[in-house]
């Protein structure tokens, strides 16, 4: 009796090639630490505590009159909006003739644990807007908020409508009870008081855990198999490492800000009910009466469309536009779809109002 | 006080250790006064606190393990269900590279779906919340023990440092708001 082994030679070939790719990887690609995520040239025009206001250098001769300030999210860093030239949100808008500023929230340390919503909205963001108004001699600016940065920008826009000419909310976190993502489930069951009282700031590791439960097998296994399989593809590898480096660089979130965030947005859902207070002032979404553009990704598994969409219906503006795109949270801002569809639509809308 | 249940046993040993720590402290406090400026005096005076924290750590560790076990049980159950679904959808052992690719896709889709369903469920959220809460209790005890050590060498405790941070934050906030007010005034003047 004998058995005949029938292993497809192609399988063996693939296994051997995969092994070779893993061995060759360090020779072929840079270590993430060696990659710089600074792409489009910019100047730091203001520094307050750990925050920096970045001003991108123009790429066109003529520019629209109204500058645009981007309020990036509190999770990870602003680099994803300028991850590489072909997928850069910032570069695309510069090429469309916009004057772009970015607010980098920096990396808070233990001594920043008492920073709260008021500091971010009426302190850092307001100071940045004031600086831009001064520098560009305009009375109003355009403001874009992304993800959690859009929640801060939304609060700012209701409290300082006189400074905002146009408002763009990109995947904003607004209605916590409608959010159907895993993150919102974890947030709803969190004893945030105990967390902040015990460890101060929200540690980055906690965020890494949240990321790890989002499509754990595709993101935890398949993604890396693909990386090693494509180790010869320079463009793919470069993009992969840049995004990976960006994903692995999330700063802590100041304790008090995190506490208010989890309680007011996810647990008590005060923002959409016009019951949230920032620095003693009520956030009334009806006060957003300027032109507003809301961008939503249908496949967003970090901020579900149901969580973002209510903003469009809650604001007081009569000139409001809602756009939905067949992509994910990051795909909406750093992909070929964002370059071909999302940004041209935004640019057209904004140029008519700038 | 006699131990007749696990809870009573813990209480009994807590009482026993506190009793002897207190008695020893009272008996030895006079000779210790001689070394009142050294670290050991302060440490001995606070050693009761360390004992209490260590006993309570054990109690919280039991709770933590309970939620951790439930956490892994939920993951294992989800794994089992997902694997059964994969077996039903793809009963044959893949024979060539193409079939392996199809199998891998089915496997990842099924597992991602089932695990996302688990992570999105109330039972997972509740258990995870309790697990993190117990972990924080353990951290709190560890902080308290560290505070005893810090105080024994006349260094500020976490609470004292927090107080400084709070005061600093309040001052910076007031200054920041005043500066911004001035800046806005300036802008209006220039306009």
Question: Nutshell version of this structure?
Answer:
The complex is a heterodimer of chains A (354) and B (191). Chain A has 354 residues and is α/β, with parallel strands linked by helices.
Describe this structure in words.
The complex is a heterodimer of chains A (354) and B (191). Chain A is an alpha/beta fold. Chain A has a single domain (39-203, 252-351), classed as Alpha/Beta hydrolase fold, catalytic domain (Rossmann fold). In chain A, 42% of the residues lie in helices and 14% in strands. Chain A has helices at 9-28, 89-95, 117-136, 148-159, 182-188, 192-199, 204-212, 216-229, 234-247, 255-267, 305-308, 310-314, 336-351; strands at residues 42-48, 51-56, 68-71, 100-104, 141-146, 164-170, 277-278, 281-282, 292-297, 320-325. Chain A has an 8-stranded mixed β-sheet with strand order 1-2-4-3-5-6-9-10, with helices on both faces. Chain A has a two-stranded antiparallel sheet with strand order 7-8. The relative contact order of chain A is 0.15. By secondary structure, chain B is mostly helical. Helix content of chain B is 86%, strand content 0%. Chain B has helices at 6-33, 39-45, 47-89, 97-119, 122-152, 158-190. The relative contact order of chain B is 0.08. The model of chain B has no long low-confidence stretch (mean pLDDT 85). Classes of the chains: A alpha/beta (354), B mainly alpha (191). Chain A binds chain B through residues 6, 8, 10-11, 14, 48-49, 110-115, 118-119, 122-123, 126-127, 130-131, 133-134, 139, 180-182, 185-186, 188-191, 194-195, 198-199, 213-218, 221-222, and chain B through 95-97, 100, 104, 107-108, 111-112, 115-116, 119-122, 124-126, 128-129, 132-133, 136-137, 139-140, 143, 162, 165-166, 168-170, 172-173, 176-177, 180, 183-184, 186-187, 190-191.
